[in-house]
Write a structure and sequence with these properties.
heterodimer; A: about 150 residues; mainly alpha; B: about 375 residues; 12-stranded mixed β-sheet; two-stranded parallel ribbon; about 40% helix; about 20% strand
């Protein structure tokens, strides 16, 4: 019992000592980086609409996403994206670039354990929960939609 | 009894340290024996690089002591990787009798303490005690892939690339091991794996308190009291915790994790890892002692004994700290006999020197 009290007090004490992350600089950085990524995406969107007028809007946006995903994977491979992500935080995570990076980085990291046990098994260690949540969420929404 | 005051003379003959490129830019850069330029060490995986690093460190220490691998009776050490592979694989390569330890980042003082007791008991003559860590292999095992663009919390620490080894012997030399204290495993209920300093500080406080009490020393008796890798926050907590016990840590207190990196580097609370105290002890501390600046040093490596599984299952992080007290043996300086015997051995050590030189040329 005494130990529990001591631990609670110690945790409170440590919490008071821990330096807090400064919210405003992080928010501004995330806003700038997220904005830049979205602007690049919009640039690709406009470019593809101009180059291929026969494509529908959803096809153009798929092409744009593919380009952004490719660029992120490429930058991850070059070892640049982790520096960008460490600077911009959520600004790099929220757009599809974060998802792309979270799949390509374990693939690179675990390549040394072989294609099956390394790349295939470990590829979704970080992005896996996102996919599971997405699938479960869509099932739930689907059911709700069915009875609405 | 937690503290053992060594009655027979146990000496730390020499120490050797190697660090990575980032650590090699830090404030202690002039003290390290060797700074590697390429942290892959031309190996395909970082686990292999860590192994190679440790091998170089052990050979370097043996060589610096003027011994050859055949003179070593035992290699005591460990590392952070699962199943302490770096140490055991190094022992395989060097064909050394091996005692493997795991105390997370407290491995350096734990191996020093056990080696000292082995010498004290007369079981062995020369023991090499050492450890090392690699940033990239530790990141992969404990955290995220290297290329993941995530942010670290401000309390995070940076596992260093590097390590060190010492030769413990019964032959007279300048630095004597006076006493060792084996720490208790102490847990104050911290669960945040990104705040190791807070998890380990209570263990360090307990070990320091016990050591001072059992040796009848006060903090003022020491020229330097060093903790392993508490970091900035952890050392502040340690100072507070000891103040409650009426033990005042003054200007002679420092933390290896804070010493090894520059303030400008993006390492948050400072360095961590088993190699942290190992490299600082075997470079800066021994250098200062041999120069005569430090006469009595207490080194307390600190370790967090959790695994990724236990922390994911919500368990708290237990901490441990082992202390080793080093004393400058001024009497031995006059002893010229040992120096002449050292000279003889330098001639016979050519084998290890050759291996190291070859490897470096390849680098």
């Amino acid at each position: 019992m005494d130990k529990n009290k001591r631990n609670v007090n110690y945790n409170l004490y440590v919490e008071s000592k821990v330096p807090k992350t400064k919210a405003w600089p992080s928010l501004v950085k995330a806003f700038i980086l997220g904005g830049i990524i979205c602007a690049i995406g919009q640039g690709f969107f406009d470019l593809y609409t101009y180059l291929f007028p026969s494509l529908t809007e959803s096809e153009v946006s798929t092409c744009m996403l593919m380009s952004i995903i490719f660029i992120t994977c490429f930058l991850t491979g070059l070892g640049v994206y982790d520096i960008i992500g460490a600077w911009g935080g959520a600004g790099s995570v929220i757009p599809i670039t974060g998802f792309s990076n979270s799949i390509s980085s374990p693939a690179i990291e675990f390549k040394k354990e072989g294609i099956i046990y390394g790349i295939c098994v470990k590829m979704f260690t970080i992005a896996g929960p996102v996919i599971v949540c997405g699938v479960v969420g869509s099932i739930v929404c689907g059911f709700i939609g069915l009875f609405m | 009894m937690q503290t053992h005051i060594l009655k027979h003379s146990v000496y730390l003959k020499s120490g050797y340290s190697i660090v990575g490129p980032l650590e090699g830019k830090g404030p202690l850069k002039d003290y390290f024996d060797y700074i590697i330029k390429d942290d892959t060490m031309k190996e395909k995986t970082f686990e292999k690089s860590e192994r190679k690093l440790l091998q170089h460190i052990i050979l370097g220490a043996i060589d610096k002591a003027g011994l050859s691998v055949r003179d070593i009776d035992l290699f005591i050490g460990g590392d952070l990787l699962n199943q302490i592979v770096s140490s055991s694989f190094t022992a395989r390569e060097l064909e050394l009798p091996f005692v493997g330890l795991y105390s997370a980042c407290a491995t350096m003082t734990e191996s020093l303490a056990i080696a000292s007791l082995f010498i004290e008991l007369g079981i062995a003559k020369h023991i090499v005690a050492g450890t090392c860590t690699h940033f990239s292999s530790a990141e992969r095992q404990y955290r995220f892939p290297l290329e993941l663009g995530n942010q670290r919390p401000p309390t995070a620490q940076w596992t260093i690339t590097g390590g060190g080894a010492s030769i413990i012997t019964n032959e007279k030399s300048k630095i004597k091991i006076y006493a060792v204290t084996f720490g208790k495993v102490i847990d104050f209920g911290i669960t945040d794996v990104n705040n190791m300093g807070a998890a380990m500080a209570p263990a360090a406080a307990d070990t320091i308190k016990t050591h001072l009490k059992n040796t009848n020393h006060s903090t003022k008796d020491y020229d330097m009291i060093l903790t392993g890798d508490l970091g900035k926050l952890g050392s502040e907590i340690l100072i507070d915790l000891l103040e409650h016990e009426n033990i005042i840590l003054g200007k002679n207190y420092a933390d290896c994790g804070c010493m090894i990196f520059d303030k400008t580097e993006r390492v948050f609370m400072g360095g961590s890892g088993a190699g942290c105290s190992a490299s600082v002890l075997n470079s800066y501390v021994l250098h200062k002692m041999l120069k005569g600046d430090f006469k009595r040093v207490l080194i307390v490596s600190t370790g967090a004994l959790m695994s990724t599984t236990t922390s994911q299952q919500g368990d708290t992080i237990p901490g441990i700290a082992h202390a080793v007290e080093l004393v400058l043996d001024t009497a031995s300086e006059k002893d010229k006999n040992t120096q002449s015997s050292n000279k003889k051995k330098i001639i016979t050590r050519s084998k290890t020197t050759k291996i190291i030189k070859k490897e470096r040329q390849n680098d």
